[in-house]
Each structure stands twice: as C-alpha cells, then as structure tokens.
Design a protein that fits this description.
Blueprint (H helix, E strand, L loop, with lengths): L1 E7 L9 H9 E9 L1 H6 L2 H17 L5 E4 L2 H12 L1 E6 L5 H16 L3 E4 L22 H11 L20 H12 L10 H14 L4 H4 L12 H5 L5 H8 L5 H22 L19 H9 L5 H13 L4 H14 L4 H11 L5 H12 L14 H8 L4 H6 L8
Parallel strand pairs: 1-2, 1-4, 2-3, 4-5
Helix pairs in contact: 3-7, 4-5, 6-12, 12-17, 14-15, 15-17, 16-17
C-alpha cells in the first residue's frame, strides 16, 4: 500500500465518490483541493463564498485533514505528490474546455515524475462523449439525446469507503484568509453547505414537491423546485444519487425531474463536441446586435420597468439563484427585446449564480437567443407581460422582489 492523492474538484463529497474509493483502494489518502487563483478571481463574491462554505464542510467531514493549496494545479499537484511520496493521483474526469487543458498539463507533469494519474467517473450521470447518433456523431438535438440517455442508463451510487487512512497535511496559509474573507464579505444569505444539508434539501423536496414538479416547477412564487443545482455544480451530490432515489417512479413529477437532469448532461455533451460554443454562437444567425449600455445596466439591476423581468434579476442579486422560468424570461428580454448578444447576459449570470455551470449556462442562453441547439428558434420570444400573467397570475413573485409594486392589484 502506498500513498494516493484524492484531488477534489467538482466532487466535494465523500458519499458516492468513485474516485475517492479508487484512491482508498490504492493506499493512504491525502485529500487535496487546489484553489486556482485564475478561477477564484473570475468568480463573483457569492460564488466564492459558496465554494468557501462547501470546502469548510468537506474539511469538517474529513476531521480537518483537507489540504487546500493555492496556485496553478500544473505546479501544485506534482509538488504535493513529491512531498508526500504519492504513487497515484485520483480525480473524477471533467469535460469543460478549461478542465481538459488543465488535466492534460497535470498528467504530463505527473507522468514525468513517475506518478500515475487515475481518472474515475465524472460529474454527470452519463459521461459526455459517451452517446452518439446512429451515424456515430454527437447529438445536436435534445429529444433523441434524451431517449438515448434513458436507454443507456447510469451506474448505481456507490457507498463511501468504509476504512480510509487520511493523511494530515498543512494547507497554504494564504488560503484560510481568502476563504474567511469570502464568507465575511458574502453579499447574500447562503444556503447551508455540505453533504448532509444537501441531502436534507433533497429529501424535503421529494416528500413535499416532487409529485407536482411537472407543473409547479414553472411557478416562481411556489416552492416547486428542488434547489439542488448549486449542490450539483460543486459535486456535493451526484446526479446518480438523485436518479437512484427516483428509480421505480414513473409519475409525471419524477419523469420531469429526470428530463432536467438529462438536459444537464446534454449541454455538457454539446460543449465537449463544440468547445468554442462556450462563448460563441453554436449556430450563428448572421445578425447585428445592439449594445445599449444604459438598458443593459437597467436589466442587470432589475429596473427595466417590466415587473416580472425586474423580479427575476433582483432575485439573482439577492439569492445567487434565479427560478428557471425567470432565467428564460430575463434572457429573452435581453436578447430579443434589447437585441443584445447573449454572452453579455451569460457572463452576468455566471458572476452571480451559485449554480453557474458553463455548459448549462451558455447553452441555455443560446437556446433562448436562437443560436444554440434548437432547430428553429429565432422567432421564439418570451413576452414579459404574458409570462407574468401566466406564471405569476396573483403577482406574488413580483410583490416579493419588486416591493414598490406590492400595493397594486
């Protein structure tokens, strides 16, 4: 038995973590997280605080043994492997363009040092790149992908390793100050972080709202969604765990929830096949866009004068989360009514969303904007008045987030 490093990235949990089990099988385990300054600096204050809180909970579950280092993973991971005499470094595969570049460099450095890099599983139910059309090409349309996704299936969750010897190691002294500052300066009330809290959220949703999810998920004034997206983003839970709990259920609520998890996998698959679509049109429309700075600022701050649009944008700033129906409404308003290119809005969302996932965010925006995976989307416009009338008919959502209108009928 030798020493193995478990390099946590988007899998900040102990349960159902195949990479951690592989590391435990290889020897004593050093749990490592590398705080990449490049990613930290790009993140908004709420996102930094959510990561800080989640890392603290993971550290507590490891009895304070999580080693957090600051720097470029290409330099930090090989250096830590040398320090502890590790024979292997274990990760869950990631498929974003940044992660693929980063991991190629890290693996090359590890190989040169005689350390094995071992990748096990991914943050998705079905690993991006697994499913193809009958012609062997990546899927471009969601519905046939979803059918193939369900037919392919996913492995059952795995239990946490029963007996692991975690090594003690020091964290970079600078990191503690950065995490503490992020939590001190957080501009929102964060959800409770960590595996146990995520599990409680999920169980409460299953008990109270899953059976009505197919209808209530579109009503922003109703607690009809699971709020699991921020936990899924950092891998505090894995979609396998949620799908496992849905097994055997064929009601409309459960089917609708499976479909939402399929969308998450689909967009990761699209990004893997088209890495340039992270910030460029997947299917360009060949049109000119406007850049009305005053109007864009009003959209960002929730003061457009369209009540349901302003409510959604204010919820984003106040909670680091926005109801999915409002994500579509506000995105349509920016792209179709103000004629602004979608990356302007996508970057604003990523600055503030705790669940801001590059693949889902960029391709969700493109679906609305008409440059993404939808076959004939350019004429789809979410009328901001009719959307409010249909999905917030009593005005309860608008009254909460735009209180200056609360006295109106």
């Amino acid at each position: 038995m030798s020493t193995a490093i478990m390099w946590f990235r988007r899998d900040l949990r102990l349960r159902d973590n195949p990479a951690l089990r592989a590391a435990a099988d290889a020897g004593d385990v050093l749990p490592l997280f590398v705080l990449d300054q490049r990613l930290w600096d790009r993140a908004g204050a709420a996102r930094r605080a959510w990561l800080a809180a989640t890392l603290q909970r993971l550290d507590e579950s490891l009895d304070g043994r999580l080693s957090i280092r600051l720097g470029d993973p290409a330099q930090v991971v090989p250096r830590v492997a040398e320090e502890v005499g590790a024979g292997s470094v274990h990760v869950a595969r990631d498929a974003s363009p940044f992660a693929l570049r980063r991991d190629r460099v890290v693996v090359d450095a590890l190989t040169g040092a005689g350390v094995e890099g071992v990748a096990t599983a991914t943050p998705y139910a079905v690993e991006p790149g697994t499913l193809t059309t009958k012609g062997g090409t990546p899927f471009k349309v969601f519905t046939p992908y979803s059918r193939a996704w369900r037919e392919h299936g996913w492995p059952a969750p795995v239990s946490a390793p029963r007996s692991v010897t975690y090594l003690d190691d020091t964290s970079d002294g600078r990191v503690a100050g950065m995490l503490d500052a992020a939590l001190r300066d957080v501009p929102i009330d964060l959800p409770t972080a960590g595996e146990d809290a995520a599990r409680r959220r999920w169980e409460r949703f299953v008990e109270r709202a899953l059976d009505r999810y197919d209808t209530d998920r579109d009503l922003p004034a109703t607690e009809g969604t699971s709020r699991m997206s921020a936990d899924l983003h950092l891998g505090v839970v894995h979609p396998r765990q949620l799908l496992g709990d849905l097994e055997g259920r064929s009601d409309d609520g459960a089917e609708s929830y499976r479909t939402e998890l399929a969308w998450r996998d689909f967009y990761a698959d699209v990004l893997l096949a088209n890495p340039g679509s992270a910030w460029r049109d997947l299917n360009p429309l060949g049109i000119d866009y406007d850049a009305p700075e005053d109007a864009i600022a009003a959209w960002r701050e929730g003061r457009t004068g369209y009540p349901v649009v302003d409510a959604g944008m204010r919820q984003l700033l106040a909670e680091g989360w926005m109801h999915n129906r409002l994500r579509m409404i506000t995105a349509s308003f920016l792209t179709k009514d103000l004629h602004v290119w979608w990356p302007v809005g996508a970057r604003h969302f990523l600055d503030h969303l705790l669940d801001g996932d590059l693949a889902s965010n960029s391709h969700g925006w493109q679906w609305v904007a008409g440059t993404g995976t939808d076959a004939s989307p350019y004429f789809r416009v979410f009328n901001p008045v009719r959307q409010g009338e249909r999905f917030d008919p009593d005005g309860a959502y608008v009254r909460r987030w735009v209180p200056e209108l609360a006295h109106l009928p």
